[in-house]
Amino acid sequence: MTKINKYKISRVTSLSIVLNNNKIYNLISKVIGIELDYDSPIFREIEEYIVEKFEEMDDNRPTPACGFCGNDIDNDSIYCSYECSKADNTERV
Could you count the other beta carbons within 10 Å of the beta carbon of residue 14? Predict the structure, then answer.
């Protein structure tokens, strides 16, 4: 198993709580027809895998780009400048 940092342990623990509180493992076992072994360490491995894949997805998210010219922008913006906003809105009319 790969070594994980404290930040990730916190995420894994949080995920574990959500999965257990919502009885997700029980639902999965019913769907695939396998009886659960609640003492199995595999649950932790599954939770670590899920967190790793979500982090990978987040790391691979494309950089946000201006809706008009394509320049990089902040996550909370649509355009890089007032001029691009105005130009894009003018073209749409």
Answer: 12
